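Dear Dr. L.,

I hope this message finds you well. Following up on our conversation about the binding site, I have prepared a predicted three-dimensional model of the protein together with iron/sulfur cluster. For your records, I am including the exact sequence and ligand specification that went into the calculation, followed by the structure tokens. Please feel free to forward this to your student if that is useful.
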Amino acid sequence: MKVKFILPALTEAKSPYWRPIKYSLFPPLGLATLAAYLSPDDEAVLEDEHVEELKLNDTPDLVVIQVYITNAYRAYQIADHYRSRGTYVALGGLHVTSLPDEAAPHADSIFLGPGEETFPQFLQDLRRKHPQKRYFSPVRTLTGIPPVRRDLIKRNYYLVPNSIVVTRGCPHHCDFCYKDAFFQSGKGFYVQQVDAALAEIDRLPGRHLYFLDDHLLGNQKFAAALFAGMRGMNRVFQGASTVDAILRGNLIEQAADAGLRSVFIGFETLSPKNLRISNKKQNLNRDYHAAIQRLHDLGIMINGSFVFGLDNDEPDVFAQTVNWAVQEGITTATFHILTPYPGTKLFQDMNAAKRILTHNWDLYDTRHVVYQTTKISAEALKQGYNWAYDNFYSWPNILKGSLTHDSLKHQLKHFAYAGGWKKFESLWNFVIKSRNLNAMLPLLESILSKVNRKEKLQPEPILPASLPELPVLTAFSE
Ligand code: B12
Ligand code: SF4
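The resulting structure of the complex is given below.
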């Protein structure tokens, strides 16, 4: 059977003139995971529209498309195209799970939730010529999953070809998060077997890894065993955690020993009232400052994520948040305008209150205001959001943030890292077009080198000041 896997792109990511680096960071891991269920005699190709032109004049037997909210319209267009050519089309992913009835007219089969159970079942049904219209799997396990088909990934097109996930979901239940909608009616957090996770890591070339798990420290026992197994592997890695997990026990020290050099944290808001209305209980009454200090002491850089537009936000939220992040020495920040994704509790509440202003999913990219705001006008919210980015990434603030660290190496890393994220976009554009992003990996690895406590106050330049820093990898929320 000839099978084609497609990750469609949103318009911005396809521009021939300007491709923001964030779309060339990670390969389509979900699709490469699904491809592993094919038989050895099936022919598979994987095309990612974020980094390459799709070839649409073929007629495979099966096309498998992954649908996110911001690529949904493009995904439906591609699906309609292939169906008109007689190809069998399967649609799945987060947006299909949230709005199956919207997706169904564009597909022969749709899939709700994770694909590790349903996709192999579907392949079997298809070969027997009895595929179902709709698949849903209440079974959630990563036990015995086949190795990800990394051979289908064009590594040179990505800055971080070594992305990996060793868990699914998250133990928490924040109202604005995709997680409860995607994992509904089944387990919402589960982990791979430690040996299998270590074997997957071992298969990855080079040193650098990026764990895309929502919460790498979410299961303490699993994470401790994983980090113990990684200790001798000479890896450097990045991943995500919550504030409370960083404060609890000594898991974060174990992570640092295993090679954790930068961590993504969803601080979201500095307002306890906002945390409460978002059901982000795990951040309530947690000492953000203490968590940050602990990370800095371990030489771990922080990518902080913040949401603007929660109902208790006042017009001063932008300045307050940016000032705080700079003072705390947060290396990079991602700001989001609150976005109610369909299927979430936030969407349900806003819909019931008639606060949803548009159902144009292209605008649900966390950069547009799609709902009726309360204490800040929509214009002020959008302006404040833009201001926050400009201000946080201004040279004076990058310098100020860098100087909060007491090791010179950490200061330099912070300065280069944060500077590169916003200040070298044109250079990134050039590297992306030369199709040699992967060649930048050694640079990333050197930037993620260890900052030892004993290195404090010992000047040790790690980079010539003119080198571009990596944009990093803060381009998505937790
Ligand atoms: C990596 C990532 C990115 C990367 C790259 C995406 C890529 N190459 O796949 C980049 C940086 C480009 C990115 C950008 C954005 N992202 Co993003 N991203 C992620 C992240 C962290 C991990 C995705 C991943 O690889 N997961 C691991 C794999 C194994 O799981 P998976 O992809 O879901 O695939 C499984 C299932 O979905 C299913 N499946 C998927 N497709 C299909 C198809 C079929 C037929 C079947 C059977 C099954 C199936 O099977 C797979 C195996 O179980 C997720 C968070 C998350 N945990 O999912 C957010 C996430 C997907 N991003 C999100 C958003 C909003 C964005 C942005 C719009 C903006 C932003 N603020 O970040 C942009 C624009 C995206 C776009 N191009 O349209 C949201 C999506 C919300 C939604 N309802 O769609 C998420 C959930 C983050 C969040 N918490 O809100 N993102
Ligand atoms: S926002 Fe983060 S902590 Fe909250 S449920 Fe989603 S992944 Fe978990």
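In brief: Residues 264 and 457 are 26 Å apart (CA to CA).

With kind regards,
A. P.
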